[in-house]
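Data deposition worksheet. Section B asks for the primary sequence of the deposited chain exactly as it was used as input, without tags or linkers unless they were present during the calculation. Section C holds the resulting structure in token form. Section D is free text for depositor observations; keep each observation to a single sentence. Incomplete worksheets are returned to the depositor.
Section A, Depositor: J.P.
Section B:
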Amino acid sequence: MNRTMMKIERIIENKKQFLDLLILADEQENMIDKYLPSGDLFALYDGDLKSVCVVVPINSEICELKNIGTYEKYQGKGYGRALISFISDFYKNDFKTMLVGTGETPWILSFYEGCGFEESHRVENFFTDNYDHPMFDGDIQLVDMIYLKKDLKTSAIYGL
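Section C:
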């Protein structure tokens, strides 16, 4: 990752052009269609496109990271972390808290915790109730949605 070459852009139009990346994190297109129109889409480039994310306002104090996807060959190289750092800074003056929901996959939970999130609550049977097929991450079937939260005011102070 070359931070001098890296740039992050807010995408206003033609958000569906990034569907190939969005579908990596949320494999059912009609679920993406529920939040993409009202969400802010950010694209991270380091030479070429590496990662995207979508953030949606929930209320005047809370926003939610609904989707973050990085091309597989660039995963583990810091792009997702850089994107979360950017959006945390971008939204710190507008919202107090950022939420993110994910499946109960240890490595993903660890990634978010490393980005300054802590476990908040869970929505039981979210994946089985809202998707038209069983969802898996590797050999782990996703059932409950685990929500994590990040205090944007505190993380701005500590640089998380």
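Section D:
The beta strands are 6-11, 40-46, 48-57, 62-70, 97-102, 118-123, 135-137, 140-142, 145-151.
The longest strand covers residues 48-57.
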